Amino acid sequence: MARASLKEQLVTRSAPVFLERGFNAASVNDIVQAAGVPKGSFYNHFVSKEELAIEVLRRYVDDLGLDELADPAGSAIQQLREHLMANITAREAAGIEFGCLLGNFSTDTVALNEGLREAVALGFARWTEAVASAIGRAQAAGEIRNATDADTLARYIVASFEGAIAQAKTLRADGPIADFLSVTFNRVLT
């Protein structure tokens, strides 16, 4: 098996550092130590920590499973449920106490780093659009009777998901996530 490139090592191994420490607290030294590469290698591949964080965030959003929400086959509401459950499972596997990279970066960096703020906004927009697409298909198929437009429902669901993850992170309990799922699928998306 071929060894990952140094750039790939930096991207892959810095993601947990950013998740656990946040953008501001994660130093380049922390990142190169986690990646097992010399500090000079960092600057051969990235101009700044912000540039690396934007790439990490882009991949994080790519890994959210948004394409699955666009699959016209099957139940759109079931796809949405499975999508949210998969993302909850991923957050739990990474350590719920560390939250979600999108949510963490949105509170950690937006006032100081315009490039990262734009990347976070794009990540939320991509996620919201995918959720809106699934909701629209579910409404058209009669799986959701709620007549609120799909874009509004999608923004509400993504914001509620992030809020539940933030509360679970703070409380170190899964009650907020259970409440989110219950209200979303038993009240909002009915």
The CATH topology of the largest domain corresponds to: Tetracycline Repressor, domain 2
- Portion of residues in beta strands equals under 5%
Unreliable stretches: none
- How does the overall form come out from the CA principal axes? elongated
Q: How many E-type strands? A: 0
The number of distinct helices, counting runs of at least 4 residues, comes to 9
> What count of domains describes the coordinates?
2
CATH architecture of the largest domain: Orthogonal Bundle
Range of helix content: over 70%
> Average pLDDT, to the nearest integer?
94
Q: Biggest sheet, open or closed, and with what strands and sense?
A: none
| Rg calc | 18 Å
Report the end-to-end length measured between terminal Cα atoms. 48 Å
CATH class of the largest domain: Mainly Alpha
CATH superfamily of the largest domain: Tetracycline Repressor, domain 2
Order of helices and strands: HHHHHHHHH
- The chain-level structural class is mainly alpha
Outline the fold blueprint:
Elements: H1 6-25, H2 28-35, H3 39-45, H4 49-62, H5 76-94, H6 101-108, H7 114-140, H8 150-171, H9 175-188
Helix pairs in contact: 1-2, 1-4, 1-6, 4-7, 5-7, 6-7, 7-8, 8-9
Keywords: DNA-binding, Transcription, Transcription regulation
Protein name: TetR/AcrR family transcriptional regulator
InterPro entries: Homeodomain-like_sf (IPR009057), HTH_TetR (IPR001647), Tet_transcr_reg_TetR-rel_C_sf (IPR036271), TetR_C (IPR011075)
